[in-house]
């Protein structure tokens, strides 16, 4: 791997990101920011955050293959990588087939898209693939720098590492709530897990494959499922849950801080930075 994302990064929807946020994240010691929410193909937000910082890596989590043509993503990649060498990682993925009117095989779409990135000379080391199931994980290992699984647990990370093998980036996303009150934390985490993810085939299939039952996935998700997908507690407890991904084979953990509506995530990210020993 030529792009060093560090051990811990921040996953946040594009609507909550800015150059100012990137400056703060870099000062807190995080290695990367992952732009969620299917950012626009021009990737202007990624470029602006890189322009404002000195070392932090910006990654997309993810550019949606249904939404952004590979040619457009490649052009943006080359523009940004030329300006900021070794600091931009193009994460791509299939998104949600339920949200597109032009449906075709998700796996075939991923293969074709990666073929087009090859033709556009986007290097394997400069791209990652959103992957949950075994076929997608193997494709990530074969055709990209690594896999970026979303809505995961350390148990999934262990299985993903077995499939990927060594030397392939594994960068799972983990949702967290810094609150020691379990009911309050679940009240924040459950809606994010439930809508839309527990209603999407690929995420449900992955959770069922991991041993969760249909009952666990219905009606907003069981407490046990929500607790597995949204780590909660004080900063030290949550840091331990993040480290568990590394213990199971992850190279990097993408931390998505969930808060009460409208609350600033930076206080929690500051606490976690200290608990994780990033500064």
UniProtKB/TrEMBL annotation:
Molecular function (Gene Ontology), one example: oxidoreductase activity, acting on paired donors, with incorporation or reduction of molecular oxygen
Source organism superkingdom: Bacteria
GO cellular component, one term: cytosol
UniProt domain Luciferase-like: residue ranges: 20-116
Cited NCBIfam families: F420_MSMEG_4141
PANTHER family: CONSERVED PROTEIN, LUCIFERASE-LIKE MONOOXYGENASE
Protein known as: Putative F420-dependent oxidoreductase
Lineage, uppermost ranks: Bacteria, Bacillati, Actinomycetota, Actinomycetes, Pseudonocardiales
């Amino acid at each position: 791997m030529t792009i060093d994302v560090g051990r811990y990064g921040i996953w946040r929807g594009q609507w909550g990101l800015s150059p100012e946020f990137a400056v703060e994240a870099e000062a807190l010691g995080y290695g990367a920011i992952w732009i969620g929410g299917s950012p626009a193909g021009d990737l202007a937000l990624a470029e602006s955050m890189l322009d404002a910082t000195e070392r932090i890596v910006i990654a997309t989590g993810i550019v949606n293959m249904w939404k952004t043509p590979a040619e457009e993503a490649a052009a943006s990649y080359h523009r940004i990588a030329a300006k900021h060498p070794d600091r931009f990682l193009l994460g791509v993925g299939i998104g949600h087939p339920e949200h597109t009117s032009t449906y075709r095989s998700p796996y075939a779409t991923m293969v074709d898209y990666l073929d087009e990135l090859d033709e556009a000379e986007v290097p394997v080391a400069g791209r990652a693939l959103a992957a949950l199931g075994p076929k997608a994980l193997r494709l990530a290992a074969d055709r990209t720098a690594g896999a970026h699984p979303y809505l995961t647990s350390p148990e999934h990370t262990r299985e993903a590492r077995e499939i990927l093998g060594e030397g392939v980036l594994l960068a799972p996303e983990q949702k967290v709530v810094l609150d020691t009150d379990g009911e309050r934390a679940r009240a924040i985490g459950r809606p994010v897990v439930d809508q839309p993810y527990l209603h999407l085939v690929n995420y449900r299939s992955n959770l069922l494959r991991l041993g969760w039952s249909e009952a666990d996935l219905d009606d907003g998700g069981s407490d046990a499922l929500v607790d597995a997908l949204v780590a909660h507690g004080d900063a030290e407890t949550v840091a331990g849950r993040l480290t568990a991904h590394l213990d199971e084979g992850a190279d990097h953990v993408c931390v998505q801080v969930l808060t009460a509506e409208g609350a600033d995530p930076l206080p929690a990210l500051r606490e976690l930075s200290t608990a994780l020993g990033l500064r």
